[in-house]
Amino acid sequence: MSAETSVQSAGSFTRLRLRFRDWRGSRPFWAGLFTMLGGVPIAYFPYATLKLGTMSIAMATTAGAGSLIIGVLLFTLGLTMWFQQATRIFAGVAAIVLALVSLVVSNIGGFILGFLFALIGGALSASWAPGKPAADAGRRAASQDPAGDGGAGTAPENAAGGPGEPHPLPDPVHGAGAEDSNGGYRVG
């Protein structure tokens, strides 16, 4: 073993962690995770037999097949959110609908636990939008002065966001096109 061995393994772990962080940041990761976690209790509880001492509790109902189908579909939708970002809105809406259907079909949506996870995952997926590339953010930061107001000598075309950028929306409280410090528009 050399002195560099531990550095290389720490470096590979850091590289893997950073690669995973980049992969996670480019897709609705938490939406997919919550949706998959929501499918597990919905599919599991109708087939589970819980033991409390000598007493066994079985939740076998006539809706067992429906619960299994909903659980598998939610798990599949979660994977779809991860690997097919173009269908994230459809997958989010479908997850919300399946979560609502699970309330009736699957033992109150997997004892509310699966329902809540699937509902949150579907909402996160439907509302997720891909971020802007880092180069675009750096270009916008360089075009503004440190105060963030564009400076007194800013040309009118730069005040509107420059070519290829959306025109700022009027803000009745803070003036036309007021932006916050990170370039997003203020709501109120």
From TrEMBL:
Pfam families: DUF6114 (PF19609). The chain crosses the membrane at residues 29-47, 53-77, 89-105. Residues 135-188 are annotated as: Disordered. It comes from the Bacteria. Keywords: Membrane, Transmembrane, Transmembrane helix. This is Integral membrane protein. It comes from Streptomyces avermitilis.
